[in-house]
Recover the amino acids of this structure.
């Protein structure tokens, strides 16, 4: 599986091939996959006695997901600030170890209060994952390469859901047959311990090119020189610049991203907590619900990899793929929710395709590093976007209410409606990029710059922490001067 540490990458025009050492066996792709398994450990535990053992009643189970995302959202800006002030690799690794510890602590919880406290801390420490790894990728890879690399991160969500889903099945089967520690406690100890171990390995190996010990000084300079042409910066430490925050608040793509993250995460929040229960509602036992959920994860994993690869070689397919996946998921929600009179295997087959809704998110998230330049602007953009991501997940965890079990018709219908609205937002966002790119290209053409001059200026922009708007405005200004 592709990682942030690759031996070879396609060279930029005029640059040399960078001979990086082989990647360590434990890479950020693996860490990213684990965080999703940790995040959704409650979904597996709920069918193995968690609710009964901790005496949860009413909406308390759904609230545990809300507490996680509340902390995840509140932590975005302060943790984004810390990620900018401290070495990125070290900060990420410490947080990985701490959130792994929180997952292990879940196994010791016996009541609602302790579960709520631990889930809150878990959300706080996991808040660094998506923005931190996005910046880490931007510090190693060219813009044209980032969607595929980040797509591999996101594919790990579903890949590890398969791997750990099978592991969870056998752990639960053993607990059911032989007794001992409750299956849901074993699941959290297993997932948390694995995460802590990976965090320690990440501390030794993960970082930006300037941080890692396994590159020579010459190789560090070469790695940095390679990504300067991105004109979006890497993971370097920079002072916080409030003027970049103000620019971000005036940027239309910022608001498309906020709305997208909120709307796309309403179904995400619901499925994260209730997907296993929905499979169980089709007539499966607790153990069968785990097994029969794996084809859905496999479909999601393959779709993400194929989509990311397609965008790598045909960038204009990003938004069409995102929209197509939205419509597939809308049909899946409506068919499963409204088709209670149909054969359960037909509903199971169609609902297994619901996982493709996440592909749209994974097509859009790389834009946070591909199209946004300026270290502070990038951090603020990502933090607020992920804050809206958390709000969407909180709302989603509350629309699947206990009284609607086992069909959850209202929740399924609400997800379909929200995704239809989001398809409109995606279409408008796509249109904005098309018109903006045409105007920017026209400005560069009218400015009289050669391709060599243009490449030189983008490198300067990347070195001097300029924002994407400053680069674009500079082209327009040169165009105006040429006309005069």
């Amino acid at each position: 599986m592709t990682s942030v540490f690759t031996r070879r990458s396609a060279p930029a025009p005029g640059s040399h091939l960078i001979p990086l050492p082989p990647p360590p066996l434990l890479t950020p792709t693996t860490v990213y996959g684990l965080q999703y398994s940790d995040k959704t450990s409650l979904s597996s535990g709920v069918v193995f006695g968690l609710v009964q053992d901790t005496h949860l009643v009413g909406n308390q189970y759904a609230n545990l997901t809300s507490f996680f995302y509340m902390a995840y959202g509140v932590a975005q800006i302060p943790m984004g600030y810390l990620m900018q002030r401290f070495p990125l690799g070290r900060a990420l690794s410490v947080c990985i170890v701490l959130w792994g510890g929180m997952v292990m602590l879940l196994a010791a919880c016996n009541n609602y209060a302790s579960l709520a406290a631990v889930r809150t801390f878990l959300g706080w420490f996991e808040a660094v994952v998506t923005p931190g790894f996005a910046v880490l990728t931007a510090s190693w890879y060219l813009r044209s390469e980032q969607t595929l690399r980040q797509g591999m991160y996101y594919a790990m969500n579903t890949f590890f859901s398969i791997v750990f889903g099978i592991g969870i099945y056998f752990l639960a089967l053993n607990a059911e047959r032989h007794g001992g520690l409750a299956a849901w406690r074993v699941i959290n100890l297993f997932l948390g311990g694995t995460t802590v171990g990976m965090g320690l390995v990440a501390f030794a190996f993960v970082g930006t090119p300037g941080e890692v010990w396994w590159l020579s000084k010459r190789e560090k300079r070469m790695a940095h020189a390679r990504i300067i042409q991105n004109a979006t910066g890497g993971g370097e430490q920079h002072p916080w610049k409030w003027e970049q925050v103000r620019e971000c608040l005036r940027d239309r793509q910022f608001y498309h991203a906020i709305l997208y993250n909120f709307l796309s995460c309403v179904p995400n929040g619901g499925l994260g907590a209730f997907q296993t229960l929905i499979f169980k509602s089709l007539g499966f036992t607790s153990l069968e619900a785990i097994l029969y959920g794996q084809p859905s994860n496999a479909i999601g994993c393959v779709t993400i990899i194929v989509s990311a690869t397609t965008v790598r070689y045909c960038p204009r397919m990003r938004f069409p793929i995102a929209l197509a996946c939205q419509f597939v998921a809308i049909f899946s929600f409506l068919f499963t929710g409204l088709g209670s009179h149909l054969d359960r295997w037909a509903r199971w087959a169609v609902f297994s395709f619901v996982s493709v809704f996440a592909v749209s998110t994974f097509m859009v998230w790389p834009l946070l590093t591909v199209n946004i330049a300026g270290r502070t602007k990038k951090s603020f953009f990502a933090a607020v976007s992920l804050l809206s991501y958390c709000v969407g997940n909180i709302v989603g965890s509350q629309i699947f209410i206990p009284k609607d079990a086992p069909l959850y018709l209202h929740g399924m219908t609400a997800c379909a409606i929200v995704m239809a609205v989001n398809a409109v937002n995606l279409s408008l966002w796509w249109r904005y990029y098309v018109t903006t790119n045409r105007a920017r290209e026209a400005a560069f053409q009218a400015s009289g710059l050669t391709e060599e001059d243009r490449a030189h200026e983008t490198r300067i922009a990347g070195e001097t922490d300029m924002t994407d708007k400053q680069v674009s405005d500079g082209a327009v200004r040169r165009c105006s001067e040429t006309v005069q």
User: Anything to note?
Assistant: The chain has one domain: 29-233+242-475. The domain at 29-233+242-475 is CATH 1.20.1250.20 (Growth Hormone; Chain: A;). Residues 300 and 355 are 5 Å apart (CA to CA).
